[in-house]
From TrEMBL:
It comes from Amycolatopsis samaneae. Pfam families: TetR_C_36 (PF18598). This is QsdR family transcriptional regulator. Residues 48-157 form the QsdR TetR regulatory C-terminal domain. Gene3D superfamilies: Tetracycline Repressor, domain 2. InterPro entries: TetR_C_36 (IPR041485).
Length: 158
C-alpha cells in the first residue's frame, strides 16, 4: 500500500480512505479479473444446459490454473489468498456465486437445465467445485486439474 500510495503521489491515509484495506483492494482487483474471465468463458462455452455450465466451470478453472501471476500470489500469500477468494466474507466468492446463479437461471428459464437443487445452493456448489480444483495444491498438495472441475460440475448437473 505504501508503494501504491507513493506511485499515486497520495498519502497512505488517502489511499486507505479510497480503497479500504489491502485485502479489500486485492479483493476488488481479483474480482475484476474473475468477472472478465467468467464473462469470456460464458460467451465461448461449448454447449448449453448442463454441458455449457460445466464447460464454463472447467474453462474458468483452466484459465486460472494457467495464470502464472495468480499462482505466484498463491505461493507468496496462501492464507491471504484463500481468505480473500474463498471465505464467506469474500466479495470474490459472493459475486462469483451470484454470477453463476445468473448463468444457471438463464439455462433454467430457457428450458435447457433442470436444477437438481435450488439455484443458490447449486451455484455455491459449482463455485466450490471450481475452487477445489484451482486451489488443490494449497489445500491437499495435489495438482490443480480443470478437467476434474468440468467433470464434477457435469456430474452434479446431470
Amino acid at each position: 500500500m505504501r508503494d501504491l500510495a507513493g506511485a499515486l503521489d497520495i498519502s497512505r491515509a488517502t489511499l486507505h480512505r479510497w480503497v479500504g484495506s489491502r485485502d479489500q483492494l486485492l479483493g476488488e482487483i481479483l474480482w475484476s479479473l474473475t468477472e472478465a474471465v467468467l464473462d469470456a468463458r460464458s460467451r465461448h462455452a461449448h454447449g448449453r444446459g448442463a454441458e455449457g455450465i460445466a464447460d464454463v466451470v472447467g474453462a474458468f478453472a483452466r484459465t486460472v490454473n494457467d495464470s502464472a501471476p495468480f499462482h505466484d500470489f498463491l505461493r507468496r500469500e496462501p492464507e491471504r489468498a484463500l481468505r480473500i477468494l474463498t471465505t464467506k466474507a469474500s466479495l470474490v466468492q459472493s459475486r462469483t456465486i451470484a454470477r453463476v446463479s445468473s448463468l444457471l437461471e438463464s439455462e433454467i428459464a430457457g428450458g435447457r437445465l433442470d436444477a437438481p437443487l435450488p439455484v443458490p445452493d447449486l451455484a455455491y456448489l459449482l463455485v466450490r467445485i471450481g475452487e477445489s480444483f484451482i486451489y488443490t495444491d494449497i489445500i491437499t498438495g495435489g495438482t490443480p486439474d480443470a478437467e476434474k472441475a468440468r467433470a464434477a460440475a457435469k456430474a452434479l448437473l446431470a
